TrEMBL record:
Pfam family, one: WHD_DRP
Protein known as: Disease resistance protein RGA2-like
Domain NB-ARC: 195-352
SUPFAM superfamilies: P-loop containing nucleoside triphosphate hydrolases
Amino acid sequence: MAELIVPTIIDVLADVLVKQLGEKVNLVMGVEEEVSNISSKLATIEKVLHDAERRRLKDRSVGIWLEKLEDITYQMDDVLDEWNFKIHKAKNARTQPTLRNKVRSFIPSLRSYLKQLPVRSDIAQKIKKINGQLELTLKEADQFKFISTGGIPDSQDFKRIMTTSIIDESEVYGRAADKDALRNQVLSESSSQGRDGVQVISVVGAGGSGKTTLAQLLFNDDRVRVKNHFELTKWVCVSDPFDERRIARATLESPGKSSPDSSELEPLLQQLKETFSGKRFLLVLDDVWTKEDSKWKPFQYSLKDGAPGSVILVTTRSLEVAAAVGTTHTHHMALLSDSDCWLIMQRIAFGGRSEEWSKKKESIGQKIAEKCKGLPLAAKTLGSLLRFKDTVQQWQDVLDSEIWQLKEATMDLFPHFYLSYNELSPEQKSCFSYCAVFPKDHVINVENLIRLWIAQGYVRPRRRGRALGTGGP
């Protein structure tokens, strides 16, 4: 994971040089310029790593470039370990001199001096070689036109799907309890006339768990939409990035009225304030990602004068986002049962097929449904895949295969989960990815896993005023 190890190498490089000077151990002389060049190159590369990691799965050449970079950083890590060990060894030899060493301190030993030369030369040569490799890697990066940290993602990123409030409830299975619980919470908050301020309810769950579907069910529920309950109901797909102007315009839009054309945020927020002030409203903000107060607060402040009982419903994958938007109640998405996953799958897979044809596949299909792990998106995707499998053997092949390696499945499933993965810090990505070393269905001992993360350098103590790792598991 280059995103994690590159900044680590930069830190350790500086530490080793300082340590060598501080301990007055001259093991590797004349490499200050080489080390400085390596640090400079790594700092330049560090700025584009987020974009490179984002693109590696869709662009094989980017993946190869990152693999080369990772190989170089692992070589540098080995050299630094060796260098640190030699410094430590030399320091111990100096602080615990024997009588023979005391004599040698007065009469410099040519043999001792010559013995250190290979060490100095070996480490210096390795550093020089790595510097040359990094030079080539940096030149190769030019062809990819990476975006530096803080840039705007390009079209190669996985696209987030823009959602709407429209839904066919006949195609939804296993969400009756979730719908009742969420509706009761919304109506309870809305009926609390004495409660101050607009209430924020967050629906939190993994990608593909059905958060948007649940919000759609609620939004279209007759008991929620009745005129004497909410004067205004609005649905806005927020997604990422959190574009304040687009969100404000979408919130103000209504059928038969043109979208506000202001390019400035201030008049849009003022119009929001005027439109929602004194009215009891239900505003659904679907697929929220931002944790930044500076983006969320102005929007929230423009809605705070809604009438008592107003509710903002947020769907998000992150509890941190739920906290950032000031959630007053959190609804955690439940996983579907295997039988509900099978109902979703068979509706799609058996569409237009004869009863006799369907019965032959049913027992296999129920076993495939178990692979969905309670995620409705997985059930829909696998149902679409099975729809074009005509024979029992083809269904059996799907059951026996590694589902995640099927191109048809990964095209729909993987982007949804990759979006959540891409939001993790480099340290968290490394911790998550490391779990792939365990066999499928292996029971992982948490304490052992954390020790392994520490041994790999993914979890490290805080120092110099900032976290050099996750600071914890």
